[in-house]
TrEMBL record:
Keywords: Signal. This is Copper chaperone PCu(A)C. The keyword Signal applies. Residues 1-18 form the signal peptide.
């Protein structure tokens, strides 16, 4: 009888312990669930992710890390117009820069020149437009804290027809010899 009573007590103790650990696991589980939901509501946070806005798809967005003291940084992404109407990227903005400009770099003779595209970038129906180093790009100007690898940069893009979208672009490491000027 004494043995059975001990067993019963042991079982009761186990049961209580099991309940407690179940409760803890439950809490941890809901915490993870919350984080997961936050992550999935921000689909453009990683390079290579594709987001859709109206008739355009935006993918492969990133921002180049900046050198200390450098006030400007380049932003790059790919825009595909899957629709049957032409669209246009008309503006870009970020809380980390007072003015995000749309620029184009091109070779003029032996010299790489950069100019601001006041009218934005045309994205014709069925076409893909790539913003990349030494070509079309976004330029974050007057940035007070240089972007560094591992940071993420909020960016809002506005299209003439498809509307506006908020993205978060990852910052990729600075590669010498391929810098913005
Ligand atoms: Cu530029």
């Amino acid at each position: 009888m004494k043995f059975l009573a001990t067993l019963a007590l042991f079982a009761a103790t186990l049961g209580a312990a099991a309940d407690q650990s179940y409760a803890q696991a439950g809490n941890a589980g809901s915490g993870n669930g919350g984080m997961h939901m936050h992550g999935s509501s921000d689909p453009a946070a990683t390079s290579g992710a594709t987001v859709q806005l109206g008739m355009v798809e935006i993918s492969d967005g990133y921002v180049r890390a900046m050198l200390p003291g450098q006030p400007v940084g380049g932003g790059y992404l790919v825009i595909r117009n899957a629709g049957s109407e032409d669209d246009r990227l008309v503006s870009a903005s970020s809380p980390l820069s007072p003015a995000v400009e749309i620029h184009e770099m091109s070779m003029q003779g032996q010299i790489m020149k950069m100019r601001r595209l006041e009218g934005g970038i045309a994205v014709p129906a069925g076409q893909t437009v790539e913003l990349k180093p030494s070509g079309l790009h976004l330029m974050f100007t007057k940035v007070t804290t240089p972007f560094k690898q591992g940071d993420s940069v909020p960016l809002k893009l506005t299209f003439e027809k498809s509307g506006s979208i908020d993205l978060t672009l990852p910052v990729q490491g600075f590669r010498p010899g391929n810098q913005h000027n």
